[in-house]
Amino acid sequence: MPRHAPASIEFRSVTKRYGTVTAVDDVSFTIEPGTLVTLLGPSGCGKTTTLRLIAGLEIASAGEILIGGRDVTTQAAADRNVSMVFQSYALFPHMSVLDNVAYGPKVQGLGRARAHALALEKLELVGLSGLGNRSPSELSGGQQQRVAVARALVLEPEVLLFDEPLSNLDAKLRRRVRDDIRDLQQRLNLTVAYVTHDQEEALAVSDRIIVMSNARIAQSGTPRELYEEPASVFVADFIGNANLLPGDLLREEGDRAVIQVGALTIDLPRRGASRGPVTVAVRPDAIRLHGTQPSSPAIQAQVAKAAYLGGHVEYTVGSALGELFAVDRTDRTPMPVGAPVWISFADRDVTVVPR
Amino acid sequence: MAPAAKAWLVAAWAGYVLAPWYLADPLSALGSGGGLWLGLTRAPWLLPVGLALVAATWPLARGLDRTRAARWLVAAGMGGLAVLWLQGFAVGLSGWGLGLASLLGAPGPAQGGMGLGAAMTATSLLMLFCAGLAGLGWCRGDAFVTSSIGLVVALVGLFVLFPVLTILGSAAGTPGGGASPALFVSRLADPSIWGLGCLAGNGTCGVAWNTLFLAILVGLGTTLLGLAFALIATRTAFRYKKALRLLSLLPIITPPFVIGLALILLFGRSGAVSALLFDVFGVPRSRWIYGLPGILIAQLLAFTPIAFLVLIGVVQGISPSLEEASQTLRARGWVTFATITFPLLRPGLANAFLLGFVESMADFGNPLVLGGNYEVLSTKIFFAIVGASQDQGRAAVLATILLAFTLGAFWVQHAWLGKRSYTTVTGKGDSGLAPPLPRRVAWLCYATAIPWALFTFAVYAIILVGSFVKAMGRDYTPTFEHYLTGFRIEQTPQGLFFSGSAWNSLFVTLKVAVLSAPFTAAIGLLTAYLLTRQTFAGRRAFEFGTMVSFAVPGTVVGISYILAFNVPPVEITGTGLILIICFVFRNMPVAVRSGIASLSQIDKSLDEASHTLGARSFTTVWRVIVPLLRPALVAALVYSFVRAMTAVSAVIFLVSAEYNMATTYIVGRVEAGEFGLAIAYSTALVAVMLVGILLIQLLVGERRLGRRTALAAAPAPALASS
Ligand SMILES: Nc1ncnc2c1ncn2[C@@H]1O[C@H](COP(=O)(O)OP(=O)(O)OP(=O)(O)O)[C@@H](O)[C@H]1O
Ligand SMILES: [Mg+2]
């Protein structure tokens, strides 16, 4: 079989309706060849549906889908050069591991011997050579996951899809397998679309992230763009649990702005905001807590909760701006509940959020 | 055009041009020949079909693009089928049909039943139509799915709905061929159907009331007996549970009227028990067994296993932790049973009652053998057709009433019980232990079930013994005479000669059973696949259509087939084909149900994984789904095999001298008083069925799952008999 070059994926105003439910609403994006893009969002926002639209397991109600520049909107799954790793792995229980992986080439009409050779090659790639004769139920969860990956890879698809591939694994294994997947993707230069609702996982493996909310795209960009320049309150909150504070934009100074937040006056990139009330997103790490009143201006607050978590201490503090969530990585001795504190902001991880 | 569509196009032309269009019928006015040739010479009404074929070929000839070609196929397929159907009715066996005679002048041209050529053309047109729909993007452009739906719809329409509608038509039909609502009403209101004479103490009640009364008694009786059995089997430490269970299942592989026959041999005027009573106590011999008592006992014996199968599922389905919870709330055994267990059983009891009710109404063999003066609808229908009067209209009216009763019962079941399932199996491991039955309940169960079991045992003993003695009740000399009469094989110079009188019908029965079983399983499981795995417009109606035949009593099916298929365009009565078709569509609902039960345990992502690996629907079904469906396949095969061996009601209308079935042959022997041969044959039949079931198990094999914990097997469908 020819080795397929990775292909791009393009959605043009794609909509998917189930009766009255709109699962994907007028979504457009492009995934460049050879990149790993994550679809991230809360439960029910349409991630799985988007992935199944790419695979051809659902047919779009409106809009166009292009893979490698070709229009595949109405093409059936079996005709698309796309493979998928299912959340449940969907390993065929009546076939051995080897037969599972060889299934794709076999139904493509390759002979048994050739199919098995391809399958063995892929099993070796995922580090499972020697387990071919077992039945899927005789493997551990992590091994089953790798069989599913090998089976998806065996046809060397133009596009590989993962639907929450790690959700059945424990926390430690999850970290390792996600690195394996990223490693494989870069080694084989694959185009991968990857669904997860774990933001840390998304930040760790992705070239780009598409954040979805209510069947639409809330924002897409590199992990860094999303974290540092959230386009909306929703994104700021969903990625990195930002504190969202009311502020007042006092002066526009070119592409920067001077903003008053409580007792603090800060100078931030303007990001298109104009004079008047604005929302400021402050990452928990960017909140500095002082046990005594500092000389510079600060907001006064009181410790409501403190949790010691080994490497850092998490605080919830009450202030005139509302409850704030802060992380202190410098001082490991938690301050007692009820103690008065003063708050200031770090230079980075504080940003204006466009409304 | 897809390669498959091209092949169908070729088949369509071959059917139209090459194959003989009509059935080989010496009486046919038109002679034999291809549709095209006949159309050009003697039967011009066949030419529009050719036009449709040209239209279907057009896109290929002009090299049109996919969507345009698909539109042509849809139009050509639909038009061709419509023309085919219309001309079939417009030109009947003896002139114009559809009331055209008054318009165009009698008698007009005539034609016979459609033959191989017409069937090929019709099938191909249907497939082209479906391929066209797939080309237009229906069912995600999957031609396998659209074709399957089209095929099932067409078959169910032709062999289930069309005959039933024909009955309704002829219930209002005048002998002249017209239709008159007034006639229908007067037939319906006949006092012999609805009379209440027996209440007033003079005369007999109408046949409808007789049927209803019997069905209610049987429903109640089977439910109680079934419940007693289910409770003993699941909730007691009774020592002979296995034997009890076996005994209760034996009636399923027994032709139902065999039980009636055994009752005659026991309690008839010259029965074994009657003789004993007369000799020892001087009780005069009487005919009390003929009539309501006899039918009631026979049906109780025959249908209790169905209630048992339903109720054992329900009893096992009650989560023990509910009862344990009740006990921890200080409710003693009896209180828990009365307040928790029994209420949870109620929907199951209602279900079992309805099944017994419907089975009793549909039963034909026992009333025929034991009825005496007690008439019920199913036998009355039979005698309206074969009796001296030969009144098809009356038979159709009676069939309509019977159909209304059974459909009504199923409607009640669906509307009321469908929403009230208390099955509490969750799929989570339930570690509770069901409490033993309270004493009182246990004794009650034993008191009903054990005598009944002994009675069943006696009945079977009689059947076995009776086949080896000269004449039950009179002469107990051991003999093989009955078996020899039925199954003699002689060594002649030309080879083995099966000279026994039963061989012919046994061979036909085996052939029909063996042929119909795989078709039943295939179409049933295919339908189950479509219902569980595909979404398409009209799915609910589709599901209803495929389940209808379950509620249609065999007698009604039999008469509807006679009315619908005795005349062109589809003229198949008297052939072996009609027997096979009858069984396939009668038994299909059970195959559908067991397929749905199994398929809903198989995760859909397995299909999807297969699709994303490049396998189309057909490959996926063949390589992934079918291997996982083995238990359902066995259930469907066994059920349809057994039913084809044991059914009487529908086939008694459809058998012919050439194609006689074992059951109808046996009924004939009973009517002729040759009881010895009849039970010998029945015993042989049961043995053949046991061998058949074992063979099916062996051939289909086990599902190779390699699971750590095995999937729960698909629930065994209730085996019903008629
Ligand atoms: N077959 C269907 N019929 C009707 N509604 C559906 C169907 N499939 C999905 N939906 C609806 O579409 C929406 C999006 O579903 P989807 O499975 O894409 O969510 P998701 O983002 O993958 O969520 P999760 O993270 O929980 O898996 C949901 O509101 C869901 O209820
Ligand atoms: Mg999902």
Provide an overview of this structure.
The complex is a heterodimer of chains A (355) and B (722). By secondary structure, chain A is α+β, with helices and mostly antiparallel strands. Chain A has 2 domains: 9-233, Rossmann fold, CATH 3.40.50; 241-353, Nucleic acid-binding proteins (OB fold (Dihydrolipoamide Acetyltransferase, E2P)). Chain A has helices at 47-55, 97-107, 112-125, 141-153, 171-188, 199-205, 223-228, 233-238; strands spanning 9-18, 21-31, 36-40, 62-67, 70-71, 82-85, 159-163, 191-196, 208-213, 216-221, 243-253, 256-261, 264-269, 276-282, 287-290, 299-308, 313-319, 322-328, 340-345, 350-353. In chain A, strands 6-7-8-3-9-10 form a 6-stranded mixed beta sheet, with helices on both faces. Chain A has a 5-stranded antiparallel beta sheet with strand order 13-12-11-14-20. In chain A, β7 (159-163), α5 (171-188) and β8 (191-196) form a beta-alpha-beta unit. The radius of gyration of chain A is 24 Å and the shape is elongated. The mean pLDDT of chain A is 88. Chain B has 722 residues and is mainly alpha-helical. Chain B has a domain at 3-99 and 108-136. In chain B, the strands form 3 sheets. A two-stranded antiparallel ribbon of chain B has the order 1-2. In chain B, β1 (91-92) and β2 (95-96) form a beta hairpin. In chain B, α13 crosses α21 and α17 packs antiparallel against α20. The longest helix of chain B has 31 residues, at 503-533. The radius of gyration of chain B is 28 Å and the shape is globular. Chain B starts with a helix and ends in a 22-residue tail after the last helix. The chains are: A alpha+beta (355), B mainly alpha (722). The A-B interface holds A 52, 55-57, 59, 74-80, 82-84, 86-88, 90-94, 96, 103-104, 107-108, 135-138, 151-152, 155, 161 and B 137, 140-142, 603, 605-606, 608-616, 619, 623-624, 627-628, 703-708. Residues 18, 21, 23, 41, 43-49, 197 of chain A line the site of adenosine-5'-triphosphate (ATP).
